[in-house]
Write a structure and sequence with these properties.
The protein is an alpha/beta fold. Helices cover about 40% and strands about 15% of the residues.
């Protein structure tokens, strides 16, 4: 795992395909920019208590705790399953948070406007897409599917809007598990997201 992380930190690739979400810990560091920002589409905030080696449950906390990204330069989109300690960490570190509920209440266009306005001030933007940001009916082929998420159309719309940012330099798509998929619908959805990013 550590060797894999080391290789990813020095990668010159623009788009990464996971794998679990822990790859973002290393891939984000390939930006080498102290004022870079991170937009994360995910059902979970992934700021649980840290382990020695980053996992899909704590990679973001590790990035922030190690000073590799500023909390205020992180934008979480679509979260809907989190612990009290995670929400406390989000508030303490001034992480922008657009929950699935707030997206429903405020509308996808208004939220996209807000996200892109904030992200446009970052020196560079890294976009990380955990496929479980979409409602579980759209993405059964993932390790931690969650109901009450974004529609596939809403996810594509967000990606299309974020793709227009001039400072977007890298992205990843993670947590697709073909062995859990039904009729390849999750894989096809991930492929569509990739197509939007190219």
């Amino acid at each position: 795992v550590l060797e894999c992380f080391s290789n990813l930190k020095n990668s010159s690739a623009d788009i990464y395909l996971g794998g679990d979400h822990s790859i973002t810990y290393a891939c984000f560091q390939s930006l080498k920019n102290s004022d870079a920002g991170l937009i994360i589409l995910d059902a979970h905030p992934d700021v649980d208590e840290c382990t020695d080696i980053p996992t899909h449950e704590d990679y973001l906390r590790k990035l922030i705790d190690e000073g590799l990204v500023k909390g205020e330069n992180v934008i979480l989109v679509g979260i809907r399953n989190y612990g009290a300690n995670e929400m406390e960490f989000i508030k303490k570190n001034k992480i922008k948070n657009y929950s699935a509920r707030s997206i429903f209440e405020n509308g996808i266009q208004e939220v996209a406007d807000s996200i892109t306005e904030i992200a446009s001030s970052f020196s560079e933007v890294y976009l990380s897409i955990d496929i479980d940001v979409a409602d579980s009916v759209f993405v059964p082929g993932t390790g931690m599917p969650e109901p009450a998420g974004l529609s596939s159309r809403e996810v594509i719309y967000l990606v299309q809007r974020i793709r227009l940012l001039r400072n977007l330099t890298k992205a990843d798509i993670v947590e697709v598990n073909p062995s859990l998929d039904l009729n390849n619908c999750t894989s096809r959805f991930a492929a569509r997201i990739l197509e939007e990013l190219l």
